[in-house]
Structure formats: C-alpha cells, structure tokens
Amino acid sequence: MKYAFPDNFWWGSASSALQTEGAREGETTWDYWFAREPNRFYNGVGPQQTSTFYQHWKTDIQLLKQLNHNSFRTSISWARLIPDGIGEVNPEAVDFYNQVIDELNEQGITPFITLFHFDMPMAMQEIGGWENRDVVDAYARYAQICFELFGDRVLHWFTFNEPIVPVEGGYLYDFHYPNVVDFRRAATAAYHTVLAHAKAVQAYRAGHYAGEIGIVLNLTPSYPRSQNPADVKAAHVADLMFNRSFLDPVLRGEYPADLVALLKSYDQLPACKPEDGFLIAEGKIDLLGINYYQPRRVKCRDSAVNPQAPFMPEWFFDNYEMPGRKMNPYRGWEIYAPGIYDILINLRDNYGNPRCFISENGMGVENEQRFIENGQINDQYRIEFISEHLTWLHKGISEGCNCLGYHMWTFIDNWSWCNAYKNRYGFIQLDLETQQRTIKKSGEWFASTALNNSFEKE
Predict the structure, then answer these.
(1) Alpha-carbon distance 212 to 410, whole Å?
(2) Cβ–Cβ under 8 Å, residues 53 and 448
(3) Catalytic pick among 21, 103, 168, 360
(4) Which residues contact 103 (CB under 8 A, 6 or more apart)?
(5) CA distance 178 to 261
(6) How far apart are the first and last CA of the chain?
(7) For the chain, which ranges sit under pLDDT 50?
(8) 137-182 tens-digit pLDDT
(9) pLDDT value at position 51?
C-alpha cells in the first residue's frame, strides 16, 4: 500500500548544538559535570567528543541535501553565543551560526532553530539556573539577541526542546546536573522555564518577525493498566505531571486546575507573582514540535508511600510493564507506534488541533557495526521503526490532524548525554576515529521517501 503525504510536508531530522558541535568558549553544565564526575558518562566520553559539526558543517549540510531533507532542526548554544550567559556576544559564534543558516537556506533546507536544548551556561547555573528568575530574564535577553541576529532568515523558532527533561533529570531522578532530588525545586525550575518561554514568545511577537515561534515537547501518552478507576486516576496524574505541565500553558495559556490543586494540597507549588498569569497567557505558540519515543504505562500504587521519602510523582502511580510489549532492548524503551496517532488525536480533540509536526522520533541501537554489509550498515530495523510510525502518523493526518512534518532523531550518530556513543541513532554512520561519514540503509530509504513524499508498505 502507498502512503502519500500532504504537499510541502517537512521531511528532515533533528540535532542539537551540544551534541554535535564540540568544544565551545563558554562552559556549560555538561562540561562542568563531566570534569568532576567522568564516571557518570558512558566509557568516560564527554561533551567535547561530538560529531564535529563545528568543523564539518558544510559537508554535513551536503549530506542533508543528499538525504533529501527540505528542513532540519538544530539549536543555538547559549554558552557559545554568550559565554557567561549575560555579557558580550561572541562574534565567532555569530559568524558560525550565520554560515550554517545561510548554507541551509542556500541548499533549500529550511532551518528550524531551537534556543535551548539542555545546555545551561555554567555561569547561569552557578546563580541557581532555572530556579532563579534572574536566569529567566537572561534567557529572554539571549532569545531577543538571537531573533535580532538571525530572525530575518530563520522562520521557525522553538524556545525549548523537551523542557521537562532538565526538570526530571536535574531535580527529580539524578540524571542531569545539578543532581538534586527535590520536587519543590523541580516545580520551581519547571515554572520558571514556562515563564522564560513566555518572555521569549513576547519578545518575538514584539519584533514583528516574519516567521513563527513554538516549543518542542516530548509527549509520552499515559496508558492505564486497566479501566479500574484507580488505574485511570494514576494515568491521569502521570499525564498531568509529565505532559500537561508544559502542554497546557503553551497551548491554552494556563495550567490545568487539577494539577495546581494536587500540588497545592502537598505544599509543592512554586512561588508565583500576580503578573505571572498574564505572561503565561501571552506564551501561546504558533507551532508545536512533538518528540515521541515511547508511551508511559502506569497502574495505581499497590504499596504505601514511605512518608520519610522525598515527595515524587511516583507517590501517585507505579510503572506497569504490559505483557507482550515490543521493546528496544538497547534503550530499554517500549516501541509503540500507535502512540504517535493517539497524541495527534488528543491534540485535535482537546487542544483545538494546533499546527504541529513530529520533531523527533528515533531508535538507538548498540554496536551497529555487526550489521555492516558491503561497507554499509543495513539497519532494516530502523526502516521498519520509521515506516510503522509514519503509517500511524498518516492515519492521524487522514483523520484531520494538523501535522505538517516528520523529523527523525538524528541525521548522524552523535554524542548522547550520559550515554555518549553507546546507542547510535543516525541515518549516517560516524566513525569516531576518522570522523568519516557513511550513509546507512535507513538514510537511503528516508531520502527516497522524502523525494517521493510517500512510501510503500505491505
């Protein structure tokens, strides 16, 4: 069967500054953390050893063209552009990003630019990071500078990539710096991130730029184990905390009342100012990027909460392993393609069918070298993964969902936070010794799909 997509559909991939560019003048939280605890990083590989986009941007953009990308998302590094977060702009960074943006446009590849992709300048973290409202103002200034520098050629802006992740990792589950376990501080960081987002949107609107501004959220549909009211309630709370805590402010301009009531009853609400509500209401977006990797399956708790333990989301639910689920064993994530359809239907039915696109979807696999045939990685598993997700995406579009594109994570094997190069995600294989790039089978498949704006599937 042939699956054809709408005209002008965005075909491309996503990446980030920190994971591809390599060393920069300004120190980030990742540089600082790696220097102190290299043991926390897979094989002791830190954020200096990336896929060298800073050196190879021109040839890498040629590879994007070869893969028939008509769009590509990357981020600007706040620490590269303004090394101390608030001071002088680094002219070398301006030159670099100008060259990248101009070359993408020249090659007919529309740049999608994210302002913040987990890379907090260490100077900003030292004064409290997202817990400090001064950092919110510093970010708003940084955003304004980016719009002024590049806003004439970048028509698709995103304030944050997966803003829930630094909150989860840095303040709840100990997988990002500053390695705090404290829900109240997590809620404060999340709240200030929403305020920072809204201030950037405000600045963009005030500048009357020609493009549009949005945010990229990783949405994890919450499925209850059963229709028992206790399971349904558990899934609802998980959805409130992990999805709607960002989705509602950016699409509706306000927080879900039941989330506010729940956190208030446990004295976990962040400090709010009277004018914050007006600001959040002004942060409504033009375009939503959706990162989808896995669903969240939950059940009600079947054991009592330890009252001495830190307050956590898991006070309200337990994770549930659905029998017979399909897994990516390397990442430990469930593969569930219908989730992409469920996200789109939820947006259509409950959020006014916003303009959106799939901004990330992908599959990390360990030791892909074992799949080399005639000098090329034959990653048929990745082709099946993408085509399965695209089938469900196509169904959503055919039922009226306003989804405008599909970006894969990622175009080239890149450095991945604490996992370094353990799992590979790219359409293009990266040889870490030689930095040689080789297109995988999935890259050829994607290039053909993008060229034809369609694919065939039995």
Answers:
(1) 23
(2) no
(3) 360
(4) 57, 58, 61
(5) 28
(6) 6
(7) none
(8) 999 999 999 999 999 999 999 999 999 999 999 999 999 999 999 9
(9) 82
State the alpha helices, DSSP H only, in 107-155. 122-125, 133-150
Kindly report the number of other CB atoms within 10 A of residue 250's CB atom: 24
In angstroms, how far apart are the furthest CA atoms of the chain? 64
Report pLDDT for 123: 97
User: What one-letter code names the amino acid at 357?
Assistant: F
**What's the pTM value of the predicted model, to 2 decimals?**
0.97
Instruction: Determine the 3-state secondary structure of 341 from DSSP.
Output: helix
* Residue that has been written with the tokens 């017979």 in this structure: 324
Please give the Cα distance from 363 to 336 (Å, whole number).
Answer: 12
How far apart, in whole angstroms, are the C-alpha atoms of residue 233 and residue 230?
A: 5
Amino acid in position 123: A
Strand partners, 288: 215, 356
Q: Which of 162, 275, 368, 373 is flagged as catalytic?
A: 162
Written as one letter, the residue type at 436 is Q
The answer to whether residue 360 is catalytic is yes
Residue type at position 369: Q
Whether residue 86 contacts residue 141, with contact meaning beta carbons closer than 8 Å, is answered with yes
Interior/surface letters 102-141, b for 16+ CB within 10 angstroms, e for the rest: ebbeeeebbbbbbbbbbbbbbbbbbebbbbbbebbebbbe
Distance of CA 388 to the CA centre of its chain: 21
Cβ-proximal residues to 49 (8 Å cutoff; 6+ apart), any chain: 22, 415, 420, 432
